[in-house]
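your task:
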Amino acid sequence: MKQIESIKEFGGWLNRYTHASTCCGCEMTFSVYLPPAANKAPVPAVYFLSGLTCTDDNVRVKAGAQRYAAELGVALIMPDTSPRGEDVKDVEDRYDLGKGAGFYVNATETGWADHYQMYDYVTQELPTLIEAELPVQAGNRAITGHSMGGHGALICALKNPGHYRSVSAFAPIAHPVLCPWGEGCFSAYLGSNRELWKAWDATELILAGADAGPMLIDQGGADEFLAEQLYPEDLRRACEEQGVRLTLRMQEGYDHSYHFIATFIGEHLAFHANAMNA
């Protein structure tokens, strides 16, 4: 870990780091907000997975999360959304595939598998590094995310029972095997066998019996991607069918932007703080 930036905010510190990732085979960048409480003792951590086209910078600048994290005494861990570097495969004319669009899966296809191992990076490599090097409590973590990152948060929790104390999401891509964003990335990263895609889809995981405990999801009613890409009602029906605890809040008038996230991020962090401090 090499610290490349440190900014004081709300009594704590917003730091940025780089490190050589074994999973992704490249240098990765991530940001961490450490609240004032971290000066005295290790604190719980909330991981925020960002959406398409984002880096670690978007959420730390736009979401207004650090004020709430300082008050609640939780760290924020903000990874990048994909591997980076000259040797990393990309598609120049696509914003929804390649760099900035890792989709939090472990790619299996030639050309992609060498670097696009974001699931292992987020669930294993990064937490191990964070908990060894920073004042963050080992094993006491929660996860949330937005859009593609909301999808990532849900599958990380569903595929790893007990790994996270709680999970939430903002406008997640809830049924990616059926939507254009998911189909585009899954066919490239995972191949043509659509049955294999289901292992990376929150709705399909729940239908297959997965459970991550109580889930909180906020979805904007005026989200421009709601009908074509997100499919929250598919997730709701799957949870009802399987008896999985889901709070899905349709927020009238809100779009897909960080204005929407900033409005409700405090409630999500409080939800996670309650779970991690129980």
In short: The chain has one domain: 2-276. The chain is about 35% helix and 25% strand. The radius of gyration is 17 Å.
